[in-house]
Amino acid sequence: MKLHISVLSAALVFALRVSLAASSDSLRVSVVDRPEASAGNTHYIGNRSPLAPSPLVELPVGSVRGRGWTLRMLQLQNDGFHGHLPEISKYLKREDNRWLSRDGKGRNGWEEEPYWLKGFQDCAFLVGDKDKIAEARVWIEGALNSQQADGWFGPGEGRTGEATDLKGREDLWPNMIMLFCLQSYHNQTGDTRVLQLMERYFRYLQGVPEEKFLVGFWPKMRGGDLLWSVLWLYNRTGGDWLLDLAHKVHRNTARWDQDLISVHNVNIGQGFREPAEYFVVTRDPKYVAATEKVWQKVRNTYGPVPGGMFGGDENCRPGRNGPRQAIETCGIAEEMLSNEILLAITGDLTWADRCENAAFNSLPAAFSADMKALRYLTAPNQPQSDHTSKSPGIENGGPMYCMNPHDHRCCQHNAGHAWPNFIEHLWYAAPGDGLAAVLYAPCEITAKVGAGAGQQVHITQDTRYPFEETVTMTFKMDAPVSFPLFLRVPSWCNVPAVSINGSSVRADGSKGRYVRIERAWKSGDKIDLRFPMELWMKAWPSNRGFASVERGPLTYSLQIKQRLVRSGGTDAWPAWDLFPDSPWNYALEPRSTGAGGTFTVVKGSWPRDDQPWAESAEPVRIRAKARRLPQWGLDEKGLVQELQDSPVRTTEKVEDVMLVPMGAARLRISAFPVAGSGPGAKEWSR
Known about the structure:
Elements: H1 2-24, E1 28-32, E2 64-66, H2 68-79, H3 85-88, H4 112-127, H5 130-145, H6 172-189, H7 193-207, H8 217-221, H9 223-237, H10 240-252, H11 265-271, H12 274-282, H13 286-302, E3 327-328, H14 329-346, H15 350-361, E4 377-378, E5 381-382, H16 409-414, H17 418-424, E6 427-430, E7 434-437, E8 443-449, E9 455-463, E10 470-477, E11 481-488, E12 497-500, E13 503-505, E14 514-521, E15 526-530, E16 535-540, E17 546-551, E18 554-558, E19 562-569, E20 574-580, E21 586-588, E22 599-603, E23 620-628, E24 648-649, E25 654-661, E26 668-669, E27 675-676, E28 682-683
Parallel strand pairs: 7-11, 24-27, 24-28
Antiparallel strand pairs: 1-14, 2-8, 3-4, 5-26, 6-7, 8-9, 9-10, 10-15, 11-14, 12-13, 12-15, 16-17, 17-18, 18-25, 19-20, 21-23, 22-23, 23-25
Helix pairs in contact: 2-4, 4-5, 4-6, 4-17, 6-9, 7-9, 9-10, 9-12, 10-12, 11-14, 12-13, 14-15, 14-17
């Protein structure tokens, strides 16, 4: 009897232990607007007091790495013109370069070197190219070794020791870019010399007279870059003097918190986020609202068009808001980076939607598919892309539409940070020592999670998003560990599906929000996400009544056969004009459903080389019904004529046309007139 009682007691104790373990490992699921920032993250550096706490925390470079098509984009960039710019660009010659000079003197050396390094360094690191990493280190060492006794670093020939009216070019702008490069280098290596340089440089800036601080056009417009670096250093070293400097930077930066200050497209892409950055210092939500107000004003006034960008070729102009107006390639890159920074500041997933829109629909087509060339300007409607000047329809004169690795000076150097930064920001660290998946693409992440000392978790994210609807995450770690995982549900997805190890998790009301899952995760766990991609025809009533075709995060463009004609360059790095070799002037039929409806999704095979943004390699296309508009053509300079008000009357027969993802269409019509009949339809005038 005693033995039986003893055995029963042992069984009860074991059952109690199992019950407690099950309780502690129990699944907790909720839907939230953003992570609760006050919970903090003890493993990664977020905002320290008294700054506004971080709802999302950027992970060190290398924590997230590409797989599938994202890795392919990095490899193409590394092997393409951007990875070989030291061979192509005169600005990257080492001889007599101010960035490699201990006294800041030389013939070359301004924004081009740090612009290029900003993307080159991270791309080389993410693909593991040791030779290019070594090349990047040459420029990093040059910047580190250039610091002067008073704290200044970088180009500074003719400098008097304090800021002048730019006589002698004591220009803070190029240093702002190099600070981003140095911060990335520190995130990769932990090299304390970066912190020492930044502290001495910021001490110098603290002493510059207010009336001579951030003088000049570019520094004043883009002071938000400097503000972000000041906050970066404060979060690592502390010191109230840095908060004083943050206030000083804001006071002397163009007042984006009051209105749209500049209509230069890259100034907009960088500058509009500055008020939200200043919110981090003040905790006053009016500054976040100011950033949103500028974003909305730009889109409503200059860019109610598909693709996530706006008409800024090179400056926005009143009345020039149609889809033939273009955007600089580095304007796209800077817009994406601002979205990624705003995600960290606010946790608001609106910025994730906006980032994906630009990344998937505008960025890829700004480069040739092999990434051996780029063009300065890309527009939603661009059926011809050649070196002939398109001004004044496009503001900039010159060969702005040519695919050329030798030209387009600022974009040539600066656009390379778009893909590395996008991949690095697919995931963030989250409060409660967790993680957040906010942008979706194939990748893998290694990060520390869980309370106390925590432990390392490795998550493989397999997906062909944004072309396909499913995302699978597979966990690997040494032992079970509890932490919250935040999963973004895109705002376009009405009925998401989430499952853990085959068991469904309720995600009601999660559209545009996070599904928060907390449990004891273990090696082998698997999350399956499904974001059904509805196909719809989006109307743009505020802009000539045109329509675009959307499926999930992708906008679709007319498939136009392209004919390449070499227009310059070298045999190793040629430049190309792109001409249409098929009709492009179509109006879409109004949307209808059922058999023979207007749109049909056509799925093809995945490209063997993992480059889905290449012509004729698109894995998902859409068959549509449309009618020709013979009166719609190109002007005498090869620029597509402006859209006219829809609906438009045409007597041409209905045809089947193929639409391809906008990002894969270097020649494209993405904003379509809509065909119609009856008294409301208008004749198209030449």
